[in-house]
Automatic annotation (TrEMBL):
The gene is LOC115228968. Keywords: Chaperone, Coiled coil. GO terms for biological process: chaperone-mediated protein complex assembly; protein folding. Belongs to the prefoldin subunit beta family. It comes from the Eukaryota. The lineage of its organism: Eukaryota, Metazoa, Spiralia, Lophotrochozoa, Mollusca. Residues 3-33, 84-111 form a coiled coil. Pfam families: Prefoldin_2 (PF01920). It comes from Octopus sinensis (East Asian common octopus). GO terms for cellular component: cytoplasm; prefoldin complex. This is Prefoldin subunit 6-like. One of its GO terms (molecular function) is unfolded protein binding. InterPro entries: PFD_beta-like (IPR002777), Prefoldin (IPR009053).
Amino acid sequence: MTEQDLEKEVKLMKEMRNELAKVTTVRDKLSNQLNETNMVMSELKLLTHDSTVYKMVGPALIKQSTKDSQENVKRRGEYLTAEIERHEKIIKSHDEKLTNHTKKINELQAKLKS
């Protein structure tokens, strides 16, 4: 075990931390989008079946039925929930790998000191 091995492990750990930060940021954005989607769904539930709902498509507002709007928002919520769960698994995996790298670095440092 040499200092080069230690430097290599430290570099790998820094890369993993950066990747973890990116994945965490994406997960946070997805969580915010899910909160917004849930707020939209709660507003849509307050409408009657004959209410007029408009959906923005590019620069235009397109008329849409309340039922269709609710179904679209529900599907979006399901998609966002699945994506958040996927990112949570990635974060957990990265945390475990970081823990292993930290242990390995500590072992290498101990061997180099002796």
